[in-house]
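Dataset card, provenance and construction

Sequences and ligand SMILES were collected as paired inputs. For each pair, a complete structure of the chain with the small molecule in place was predicted and serialized as C-alpha cells. The example below shows a pair involving 2-acetamido-2-deoxy-beta-D-glucopyranose. Curators did not alter the output after generation; any descriptive sentences attached to a record were derived from the structure itself.
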Amino acid sequence: MKSLLLLTFLSAVSGLPRPSLFTENPALSSKSLLTRETPAAAAANTTASSCSQAVLALASGIQSNIADQNNELATVTALGNVLAQNPMDLTLYSATQASLLSFVQKGIQIREENQRIAPAGNAAIAGLATVAMAQVAELSLTVSLALGGNGTDVAKANATVETLKGDFKGGIKQNMMNLAAATANCTMSAATGSTAAKSVAY
Ligand SMILES: *[C@@H]1O[C@H](CO)[C@@H](O)[C@H](O)[C@H]1NC(C)=O
Ligand SMILES: *[C@@H]1O[C@H](CO)[C@@H](O)[C@H](O)[C@H]1NC(C)=O
Ligand SMILES: *[C@@H]1O[C@H](CO)[C@@H](O)[C@H](O)[C@H]1NC(C)=O
Ligand SMILES: *[C@@H]1O[C@H](CO)[C@@H](O)[C@H](O)[C@H]1NC(C)=O
C-alpha cells in the first residue's frame, strides 16, 4: 500500500507520459524512466557514457518543440475563451487564430529540423514521425478556424478548439517520450534532464 502511494506520487510529480492517442514504447515505462533518473543509480553505473553533441542537439530541439507545443495549448485555450464571449470580439478572435497558426507552423519547422539532425538509428526517430503526422492534422484544423466572410460558426469552432486541446496535449506527451528515447543510452547533465522531465504537467 505504501509503495503504491509512493509510485503514484512519483508518477504525479515527475509528469511521466501517459499517452492516450499515441502508442506507448514499453522501453519507456514509468519504472525504467524512474530508474534511469535516480541520481544514485546513474552515478553507480560506470558504463553509461555522456551523450554525444548530436544527441544533445536533438534533445535540445525536442525541448524547443515542447515549449512551442505549450504555447499552442495556451493559445488555443485563449481562442476557446474568446469564443465563449457574447458578443464575441471578432478582431481578437482573428488575432488569436493567427497567433495559433504561427505557433503550429513554427512547431512544424522545429520538428523538421529535429528529423534532419537526428543521428542515424536514434530511438526517437519513429516518435518524431508520429509528431509529423499529428502536425498535419493540427495545421488543417487550425486553418479551418480562420474567420470566414460570414463570421464563424461558434459551436463548430468550439468543437475544433476542444479537439486541438487534446491533440496538443498528446503531442507534448509524445515529445516527452521522444526526449527520453533520444537520450536513452547516454547521460545528460542533471540540470537539463530534470528540467525536461518536469516541464509538462498534463
Ligand atoms: C548500466 O548500464 C548497463 C549497460 O549499458 C545497463 O545494462 C544497465 O541497465 C545500467 N544500469 C543502470 C542502473 O542504469
Ligand atoms: C465549448 O465546448 C466546451 C466543451 O464541450 C463547453 O464546455 C463550452 O461550453 C463550449 N463553449 C461554447 C462557447 O460553445
Ligand atoms: C541503445 O542501445 C540499444 C542496445 O544496444 C540499441 O538497440 C539502440 O539502438 C540504442 N539506441 C540509441 C538511441 O542509440
Ligand atoms: C455568406 O453567407 C451567404 C448566405 O448563406 C452565402 O451565399 C455566401 O456565400 C457566404 N459567404 C462566404 C464568404 O462564406
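Derived descriptions for this record:
The chain has a mean pLDDT of 81.
Strands lie at 49-50, 186-187.
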